[in-house]
Design goal:
This protein is an alpha/beta fold and 238 residues long. It has a single domain, classed as Vaccinia Virus protein VP39 (Rossmann fold). Helices cover 33% and strands 18% of the residues. A seven-stranded mixed beta sheet has the order 3-2-1-4-5-7-6, sandwiched between helices. Helix 5 runs parallel beside helix 6.
Length: 238
């Protein structure tokens, strides 16, 4: 790495191609962000507050509970559902789109869950400070498809994201991927096993039918109305 590969703070240069903010927030959502977000931090993640990349103390954060991670939680419906359904687990949700973060905070207030933390930023920065082998389950639900072929390198299912994900996941940990984009399915099936994960499907139902604890999100309902077919893939970290 050369001096030109790093930010003045010491952070590696990482291109981010998604949106950080969309249309204006409602007043209630601005209140959620002001009052709730800081208290739901998993700890010092950003380079500005943790330049030495000291690992998070996830054992203390969740009192020794198993750690699950949702990457890009959208509006947060699935994340809150998992937190409410699994009180014996600690979850961290990662999402850079602030409108989605605000929606999640509203869902958290409504559900009253307390076993959930939020990183409102790039998951790669979170990977830097998660201890090796600390994540017992990870979710990637309907990630940005980047449909143009020249943009496929921006997708999550590339070595830039999958290699650090493999590092922070425990041996035998489960990685779930849901998508309605056919060539995203193919890229997932090629790249995820290359990164050290085994596909657990034994028959068509294992990728056609959702998981028993699945919560269909607003995005999925839109996809179904428009005739797109969801695929549900389960992998195990070697």
């Amino acid at each position: 790495m050369t001096e030109h590969d790093t930010h003045p703070s010491g952070a590696p240069w990482r291109n981010f191609y998604g949106r950080f903010k969309g249309k204006g927030l409602r007043k209630s959502q601005e209140v959620y962000l002001d009052e709730d977000l800081a208290g739901l931090s998993p700890g010092p993640v950003g380079w500005d507050v943790n330049p030495d990349r000291v690992p998070l103390d996830v054992a203390a954060l969740f009192e020794g509970k198993p750690l699950w991670l949702e990457i890009g939680f959208g509006g947060g419906e699935h994340l809150v559902h998992q937190a409410a359904s699994n009180p014996g687990v600690g979850l961290i949700g990662c999402e850079p789109y602030i409108n989605g973060v605000a929606m999640l905070l509203g869902h958290i207030r409504e559900a009253g869950v307390t076993n959930l933390r939020v990183h409102p930023g790039d998951v790669r920065d979170l990977f830097d400070v998660l201890p090796e082998g600390s994540v017992e389950k990870a979710f990637l639900n309907y990630p940005d498809p980047w449909p143009k072929k020249r943009h496929h390198r921006r997708r999550f299912v590339t070595p830039e994201h999958l290699d650090p994900l493999h590092r922070v996941m425990a041996s035998g940990a489960e990685f779930r991927v849901a998508t309605d984009i056919p060539d995203y399915v193919w890229q997932t099936m090629i790249e995820v096993p290359r990164a050290g994960f085994d596909w657990l499907a034994e028959g068509p139902a294992d990728w056609r039918d959702p998981w028993e604890d699945w919560l269909s999100t607003r995005y999925e309902q839109k996809a179904l109305r428009e005739g797109r077919v969801p695929h549900y893939m389960t992998f195990r970290r070697r």
